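Why does residue order matter? Because the sequence determines the fold. Keep that principle in mind as you read this record.
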Amino acid sequence: MQPPLVLFDLDNTLVDRRGTLADWTAGFTAQHGLGDEDQANVLDMVAERAYPFTFDVIRTRYRLPMSTAELWRAYCTDIAALVSCQAEVLDGLEELRAAGWRVGVATNGAVDIQRAKLRATGITESVDGVFVSEEADARKPQTRHFALAAARCGTVLSDGGWMVGDNPVNDIGGGRSAGLNTIWIGNGRSWPPDAPEPDHTAPHARAAIDLLLLHSAGDTRTTT
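Structure:
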């Protein structure tokens, strides 16, 4: 029997991307003498998708003296210094592995920034494998993304498993299409009324881990 697989989304699942970006944007705009409206615009741009080309747009719009490459490197360094993963979540990842789970991270994004966050938070050492979409141009909700993430953990999708994430389309819809059971991280939100529901909901990653530990122990009396 193969060890059970669970894949976790990174941003706003294992780490607080929204809060980290807000803190970074405040510091970035203050550093470059930009106003409140500029701060809101920069936050919108990096929240949508943070890649080097995003910083090319920012550099051009605000006539910044640094090169795009310098801005991107500084962003990766600064975000890594700001981001954190709660100790109870890191402990939970280790508990899952001790209970026989294969634990992985399946995340969209640029390799530089996602790997920097994973290293800085200690998540890299707490999981069996990581797949970042830019590594093979395979973004969630594509099934290929989940297949590559499973492979990084030494298993295959046909063996089944779980996907845990906050995005109803990328994580829950994509995970379901890939044949995985799903846990949605609500973060205080309500599930979209027209979307097929996840197998479970949880308020945060630690609660999702506890559900999985109960599942592996054969306890089916879990609630959402």
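The chain has nine helices and six strands.
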